[in-house]
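RECORD TYPE: inverse folding
INPUT: structure tokens
STRUCTURE:
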């Protein structure tokens, strides 16, 4: 079943974004981000210990973790205790690649950075909202390092964000909510920089194959939506 036409925004406009940084007093970097009705809490932690595969190397390492609270969805989901959960593992790998593209890890030799993204409320786009929230937390972390004098050089190489995009019938929509995502015949999660450089595109066709032209339309719209979201994110940081 096709969801009704959008009345609050046009098909190529992302949902309203709101971000607050520094929300966790215990974390050296943190942010709360709302994208439509999806809400993410992201924190950055630092361990003065290198990852095993980075010992003796000139840069540190960054890893990401993702979890969804039991009542993040309309029905209670069992608390995620299995670290090998396939969906969680896939999202964590995406987040890790996105954040490592953002951070100059040469500033953190002998250390490991952890970016934890927890879904408080889910209404579609939790992984792309986690990329945006995690980047906001890293920005908060970097700013605190500069302000405290612990670093003299800005440690973020790229401004990184993400957006979902899908085809509902023949209509292309960006930043799908849950009702749209569940009926899309093809969808992508696009991770890119504010300069339009692509980091990752993840997704595919749901109801039979799509053409290469349709895929390019999705990818192009996704990159443009990332740019729009990052402009709004930086306005609020």
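DESIGNED SEQUENCE:
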């Amino acid at each position: 079943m096709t969801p009704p036409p959008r009345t609050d925004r046009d098909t190529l406009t992302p949902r309203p974004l709101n971000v607050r940084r520094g929300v966790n007093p215990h974390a050296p970097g943190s942010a709360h981000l709302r994208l439509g009705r999806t809400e993410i809490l992201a924190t950055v932690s630092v361990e003065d210990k290198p990852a095993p595969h980075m010992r003796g190397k000139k840069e540190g390492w960054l890893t990401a973790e993702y979890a969804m609270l039991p009542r993040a969805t309309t029905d209670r989901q069992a608390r995620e205790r299995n670290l090998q959960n396939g969906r969680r593992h896939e999202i964590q790998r995406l987040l890790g690649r996105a954040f490592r593209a953002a951070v100059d890890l040469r500033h953190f030799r002998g250390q490991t950075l952890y970016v934890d993204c927890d879904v408080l409320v889910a209404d579609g786009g939790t992984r792309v909202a986690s990329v945006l929230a995690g980047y906001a937390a890293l920005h908060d972390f970097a700013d605190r390092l500069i302000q405290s004098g612990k670093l003299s050089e800005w440690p973020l190489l790229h401004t990184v964000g993400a957006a979902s995009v899908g085809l509902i019938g023949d209509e292309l929509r960006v930043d799908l909510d849950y009702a749209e995502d569940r009926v899309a015949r093809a969808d992508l999660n696009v991770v890119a920089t504010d300069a339009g450089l692509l980091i990752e595109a993840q997704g595919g066709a749901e109801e039979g194959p799509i053409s290469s032209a349709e895929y390019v339309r999705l990818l192009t719209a996704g990159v443009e939506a990332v740019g729009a979201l990052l402009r709004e994110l930086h306005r609020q940081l």
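NOTES: The CA atoms of residues 167 and 214 lie 9 Å apart.
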